[in-house]
Amino acid sequence: MPKILIVGAGIGGLTAAIALRQAGLSVEVFERARELKEIGAGIGLSPNAVRVLKHLGLMQQVMNRGTVIEAAAGYTERGATLTRMPANLADVPTICLHRAELQQALLSSLPSDCVHPGEEFVHFQQSSAGVTAHFASGSTAAGDVLIGADGLRSRVRALLVGDGEPVYRGYQCWRGVCNLPASTQLTETFGRGLRVGLVPIGPRGMAWWCTANEPELATDEPEGTKAKLLRWFGSWHSPIPEVIGRTDPSAIIKSAMYDRQPVTTWSRERCTVLGDAAHPTTPNLGQGGCMAIEDAGLLARCLANYADAGTALRVYEQLRQERTATVTRMSRFYGVIGQWKNPGLVWFRNALFRRGSGKAAIKGYLKFVSYDPYAIPLDQGDAPSNGEKFVV
User: Fold this and answer.
1) CA contacts within 13 A on the Cβ side of 164
2) Domain limits at 46?
3) Which of 8, 23, 230, 265 is disulfide-compatible with 234, CB 3.0–4.6 A?
4) 253 within a domain of the structure (yes/no)
C-alpha cells in the first residue's frame, strides 16, 4: 500500500490523514510539538469546509462540540447595524467551535499510532523510488509522497518554494475565550483602525478576537494586554467589554497578521504542501482553516485517482491555485478596509457595507461556500484521470 508522510498535525494535516486513509492509502503524521496540547481560541467552519467533514463522517461530531450559526452581523462600535446575513441557507451549516475541539474530533478519527509527536522535520530526499523525511531527532521515515502541513513558516515550503519570510500586513490580532453563554450569531464590529469579532463556540462559551494597527514587533508592556484592550474597547457596545473583561489575561493570544503573495507552483516531484504552508491568508474572511480542509479533500482524491504521484500533485495544485489565490487577495483587501483609521474612509466603508448587504451579497456568499472538492472533475487539471489507484 502506498504510504503518505504528513508533516504537521494541525487542522489541515489531520484532515488530510483522515481523507487519505478513507481513500485507501497508508498515512503517518509527524508533529513538531512533543504533546498535542489545547491551543488557539475559536474557529469558524463555513459550509465549504463542513461539506468536507460531512463526506468524512465528522460533521455531526463537530456540530456537537460547537455552535451552529444562524446569522452573521456587522456593527459600528456604538452598536448600529451595518450588515446582517442569514448563515443557514446552504445544504450544510456554518459551525463555530474551539480550535482544540476540532483538533480532538480529528484526532479521534485516527489510530493512536498514526500521529508521531516530538518529531521536528528538517529536510527530505526524494528519488524515483520514493521520498525520505529526516527529523531533528535523527529518525527518518520513508514513503511515496510527502505533504507539508506545517503552517505559515513551513519548513517543507522553504525547501520547495524558497520564497523567504511571510509579509506582515500592518496589524496585530488578540484572541481569547470567556465563559459567557454562546448565542447563535457571529458578529464583527468596526471602529477606526480597530475591530472586534465575537464567535459563539458551544459549551465553551464565547470566543473573541480583536485587531489594531501596530508595528510588527510591538508589545503590550508596560500596560499589560488586558488593560490595553479595555482602554481601546471598554466603551464599545455590549457585550464586547464584558467578554474581554471576563477573559483570563494569561490566556489571551497575540499574533501578528501575515500572508504571502500567491504562487502558481508549490509541489515538486513527490512533495507538496497544503493549508497555510501553501497559501497563507490573513484571517479576515475566516477561511484559513477552511482552505486547509478543502485542500485535504481534493489532495486525497488526486492521490487516490492518479497512478503517478507527480501527476496527482500537479493536478491538485492546478485545481487549487486560483481559488486559494482569490481568497488570499480578498482577505487582504478586506483587512485593509477593515483597518482604515481616517474618519472619511471609515464613513465610506460603513456606507459601503450598509448598501452591499442585500440579495447580491447573499448570492455571492452562497456561490463561494457551495465549493465541494469531492464534486470537482479531476480532469479539469492538465492530465486526464486513468481511473487507476495510486501505485508506486
Assistant:
1) 3
2) 3-166+259-380
3) 230
4) no
pLDDT tens per residue, range 308-333: 999 999 999 999 999 999 999 999 99
Q: Is the pLDDT of residue 269 over 80?
A: yes
List beta partners, residue 4.
27, 145
Residue 316 belongs to some domain of the structure: yes
Identify each DSSP E strand in the chain by its residue range: 3-7, 26-30, 42-45, 67-69, 71-76, 81-86, 94-98, 115-116, 121-127, 130-135, 140-143, 145-148, 167-178, 185-190, 194-200, 206-213, 253-259, 271-273
C-alpha cell at 72: 452573521
**Buried (b) or exposed (e) across 25-63, using 16+ Cβ within 10 A?**
bebbbbbbeeebeeebbbbbbbbbbbbbbbbbebbebbb
Q: Is 29 helix (H, G, I), strand (E, B) or coil?
A: strand
What percent of the chain stands above pLDDT 70? 97
Say if CB 281 and CB 335 are below 8 A apart: no
Length of the chain: 392
Answer yes or no: is 310 within a domain: yes
Kindly report, residue by residue over 57-109, the tens digit of the pLDDT: 999 999 999 999 999 999 999 999 999 999 989 999 999 999 999 999 999 99
Bridge partners for 194 per DSSP: 212
The number of domains in the chain is: 1
User: Residue 171 and residue 339: Cα distance in Å, rounded?
Assistant: 8
What letter does residue 281 receive in the DSSP assignment? -
Residue 181 inside a domain? The answer is no
Task: Tell me if the pTM is above 0.90.
Answer: yes
The CATH number linked to 359 is: 3.50.50.60
C-alpha 112/C-alpha 352 separation (Å) is 50
HSE of 255 in the Cβ direction (CA atoms, 13 Å)? 15
Q: What is the pLDDT of residue 333?
A: 96
